[in-house]
Every structure is written in C-alpha cells, then in structure tokens.
Amino acid sequence: MNEQVSYTTEEIAKLLKVSKLTVYDLIKKGDLPAYRVGKQMRVDHYDLEAYKQKAKNGMIRENRENAGQLNMTATSLDSMLQTSSSSDVSEVSPLQPGVGNIPHIDYQDHTADAEATVTPEFVHAAYARPEEILRNTGTMNPITQDTITPPTSGRTIVITGQDTSLDILARYMEKEDSRYRPLRSFAGSMDSLVSMYMGNSDIVSTHLFDGDTGDYNLPYIRKILVSHPCTVINLASRRAGLYVAKGNPKGIRTWQDLAQNGVKIVNRERGAGARVLLDEQLRLNNIRTSQLQGYTQEESSHIAVAGKVASGQADVGVGSEKAAALVGVEFVPLTVERYDLVILNKTENAEWIATLKRILSSDEFKRELQAIGGYDLSRTGEVIYASEY
C-alpha cells in the first residue's frame, strides 16, 4: 500500500527533519522526483525511499567522494563534478566565449557492462551522455543497483536546464508523440550550451546576458555553437533582480549598492545565468569581485540563494522573481531576462522540432506555465534566430 502513498513538501520536510527550502532544492536539482497536483507539489512514497537509499549509499550527486574516477582530458574533473560535502557546491569550470577551452571527456573506461551490476557515475549534468542521465533519473533499481534496461523504442531527447518549465515541456513532448522519450538533465545556462556543443543534449535552455550588446543568449550561442546551425525559440521572459530581507534593511536597490560596506552577497555557481548576469553587471559598473563580501559563497539554485537571504546568512542574492515568492523574501526587479531554447538544425531532428514548436505555440501549454506564475509568455514559441540546416 505504501507505494500508493504520496507526500506534500511539508510532510517530506518533517519526515527528513530538514527545512522546506531543502526539500524544494532537492526537487529543483532532480534528486527527489516530484509532480504537481493543482498548485501543490507531491512526492511518491517510492521516490522518497529511493532517495533515502541513494543517500545511504553515497550516490547523491553532491555527496560523491570519488568523482575522479572518470578519465578526462584537457580539464580537471574536480572542477566539474560535485564533491563530497553537501554544503559546498562544486565550481564548474567556466567557459570563456570565444576561447577554445571546451573540455573533452574520454568515456572509453565508462561503458556499462550489460551483464554486471553497475554503480552509476554521477557526472556533471552538462557533460553526461544520455545513458548516464538515464541512471541519474531513476532507471536503476535503488535497492539492488541493477540497471533497468531503457526502452528500445522511441527517440531519446535530452532536455538540459534547470527551470520547472522544462519538466512541463518534457511531459508534453512525451504525451504529444510516444515515439519520443524526453530525459531531463540539470545544468546552468553556460554548461547547457557546452553540453550541446559536445553532442550530449538535444534541447538546451539559456538566459545569458551580454553586457556589451545588452542582448540575451545570441552572443554566447554564436560563439559556443560555432559552425553548428541552430534555431533559438523563446520559451518565456521573466524578471530578474535581487533577493533582500523583509523590509530591505540594507537599502539595496541597484547593482552599485552591492559594493556597500557591510553588505554580504550569496552567489550562484559558475555557468549559471544568474552568475553571468551578476558578473556582467559588476564589469559594467566597474565593481571588482574582491569588493563583494561573500562573492565566493555559491549555491546551486534560485531557491537556495533566496533561502540564504531569508535565513540571514546573506544580505542579497541574484535570481528570478518566482523564487522570492516561494521563499518569502523581498524582490528588487532590475531586468527582464529572455529565457530561450536552443536546438540544432539537423535533418534527423526536423520532425521532433516541428512537434516542439507546436507545443510551445499551444494554448494548453501556455496556460499551464501561466498557472505557475512569474512568466511573461507574450513571445513564447517565437523563433528568435535560425541558421541554415
């Protein structure tokens, strides 16, 4: 009977003896599968027990102590895999657009033996191949660790990014055409583009601000996906800005205010869109990172950043408006960011790209996003950029 039981986020927090913010963060990162019933998030009993078992076995991504097992070249793996401490978010090696430091991963020693019991290697989501993403998202028995053979039918489509809207999109794609099997991979905007460059993602989301042009995404896409014809489609727009405590006691209202004495910031991980937005604004306002107290303190989601502000561990953080409402901190809007999807223009992709466009333009999909709140859908489904096949 337990398999039919589901829990609210409040009940999960009580069972695990953690804060509700921690539960939201686990759901956001994909460690704890959840689904929405109306406006309420729920977690099935089986998924909770699977998470607990993985945690006991040291298999959750942030608890990996042996990340160096993969054979990698050109870039130290330590900078791309999350390490053993759940409180320390690993620093992902940043990609400088236009500089050829995109890492190469050698998977020759990382092929699953179909006849053996396999312990999954949790690699950074941006660099995970589809078979690794399958292991990361529940296609392994959480008790015996035996691999569960993926369906042989259906075209696997890897959707990379962190926003909840991508989970909804994956569900719609599977419902629209059973020939497609969407898989979710969680990574920041910069790492998502790198994942596509490396051939490990089919649809990636990005919200990267370029201070020189004032534009979002296209300057980075053109540099990272050089020689890769692609299409950029708008998913939504949303307000971005600063999280501050109730009443805004430090009077933080502009980017310049971040450099005030006595103001402590909490940052996002390298490669995240919010991190790029902050770094670009610091550059434009001639503020050195060394002037910001707490700049090196990193969290891996908007909710985690807002949570640090809510708990008083930081005075300010950068993120989207929706997380502020969830956590209960004040939000200072400073910009509207364009949240786009990127797909590679390949002949073999043409059919599912048409399906994707149809979903994005549908009233049903837009209504579901609208119900979540925090999105401007006026340009949803609009082709922002397209190069030749």
UniProtKB/TrEMBL annotation:
| Domain (Helix-turn-helix): residue spans on this chain | 7-54
Gene3D superfamilies per UniProt: Periplasmic binding protein-like II
Q: Out of the domains of life, which is the source?
A: Bacteria
* Domain PBP residues, every copy: 171-360
Q: Which PANTHER family match?
A: BLL2305 PROTEIN
Name of the protein described by the UniProt record: Substrate-binding domain-containing protein
Q: Which organism is it from?
A: Paenibacillus nicotianae
